[in-house]
Specification:
Double-stranded beta-helix, nine-stranded mixed beta sheet, 21 strands, metal-binding, binds fe (ii) ion, 374 residues, alpha+beta
């Protein structure tokens, strides 16, 4: 019998967040792994405390366990493209290229990397409007709601992402502003990672919306993170503002094969519970393919439709904001949640995290319509 214990972090929303104890991640038996996998797909975000000794190799092996046939790092080498918005935020561990170092501040040496300058993404670099500098210590925003995924070429969205908190600056709290006219706010720990459930997002749709998302597909932009590098985000971090500023297709790197453009279901099925998640990466959507074969290609309209579907699901009561402590190892179901960086650190607040995910061995599992509209 496995002695692993599981404790949901929020009894009213057990599907988002659980604490897992009595588990040895570096020497994980098959039985304990199955308990962990079931827990992950039931609670979608799980935290195992005091894992500071886990090596980058352990972390990569643990992450691969969820998808042994997985490919390389989830973004492959696409983050190397200098114009990609992801380029400044990730540093690769030289001997374990599936594992990236992220964080804030200057780190002289870590796992073969030297003189690392890390930068916690700040909304002022990404949003169309910003919180004034004088309020920056106390107020923050969701930086960018997303799925960890290249969304281009042969790289399937990773099944699972692992995040290890190596160094966490002394904690304080901030007020998160949605700044979208609703007046919504959320009290969050500094530098939290915010999660919302795609299952809840789906469940709260109307019958008509469910029919729409079950039968429509999203086409993502080619070289998506270069394409949006000249655009700005909505204040709630849920998609871009439409101003016609995307990098023109002819100025993107070449599209080698038409099949490199990814067209994915809007709804992805949970492999353990069978539940449906509304899983759309809002920043890089380009077109919607409808059931009848027609295509919505008016970008402003596409973004408004996606925003209308997703915004209810990021309401304050649905957000799980993880309060990081050093040694926390968090695994999340990247096919069932959206997540966002939050917060603003001073330059001398050093934060060091390790992130690992692997491009999945298979595309996301979509719904077999019409099995559920209930
Ligand atoms: Fe991420």
């Amino acid at each position: 019998m496995s002695s692993v214990t599981i404790q949901p972090v929020n009894s009213s929303h057990p599907e988002l967040g659980a604490l897992v104890q009595n588990i040895d991640l570096a020497h994980l038996s098959e039985e304990d792994f199955q308990v962990l996998r079931n827990t992950l797909y039931t609670h979608n975000v799980v935290c195992i405390k005091s894992q500071g000794k886990l090596t980058p190799k352990n972390q990569a092996e643990l992450t691969r366990r969820f998808d042994p046939e997985a490919m390389t790092y989830g973004h492959g080498t696409t983050i190397d493209a200098k114009r990609s918005i992801l380029h400044p935020d990730l540093k690769t561990i030289p001997y374990q290229p599936e594992v990236q170092v992220i964080g804030n501040g200057f780190v002289p040496e870590y796992e073969g990397l030297t003189d690392i300058k890390l930068r916690h993404p700040h909304h002022r670099t990404f949003h169309k409007t910003v919180i004034p500098d004088e309020l920056d210590l106390d107020y923050t925003r969701f930086y960018r709601w997303h799925i960890d995924a290249a969304l281009y070429g042969k790289l399937n969205p990773p099944l699972v992402t692992s995040l290890l908190a190596v160094k966490v600056p002394k904690n304080r709290r901030q007020t998160l502003l949605y700044d979208d006219g609703t007046g919504d706010t959320l009290d969050v720990p500094l530098g939290t990672t915010a999660f919302v459930s795609g299952y809840n997002m789906f469940d709260n749709l109307s019958l008509e919306q469910k029919e729409f998302v079950l039968t429509s597909k999203i086409e993502y932009a080619p070289h998506p993170y270069v394409w949006i590098s000249t655009t700005k985000s909505r204040p709630d971090g849920l998609g871009m503002v439409s101003e016609g500023k995307e990098v023109p297709l002819e100025d993107l790197p070449p599209i080698e094969r038409e099949s490199d453009i990814q067209i994915l279901p809007m709804v992805w099925r949970n492999p353990v519970t069978g539940r449906f998640a509304l899983q759309i990466h809002p920043s890089v959507v380009r077109k919607i393919h409808l059931k009848d074969g027609s295509v919505i290609d008016d970008l402003a309209k596409v973004r408004d439709i996606v925003h209308g579907l997703q915004r209810p699901g990021i309401a304050p009561k649905f957000v799980y904001a993880h309060d990081w402590e050093e040694g926390d190892l968090v695994l999340f179901n990247n096919h069932g949640v959206l997540h966002s960086v939050v917060g603003a650190f001073a330059e001398n607040e050093v934060r060091l995290f390790r992130q690992c995910n692997l491009a999945a061995s298979r595309p996301p599992c979509g719904p077999q319509y019409p099995e559920v509209v209930a």
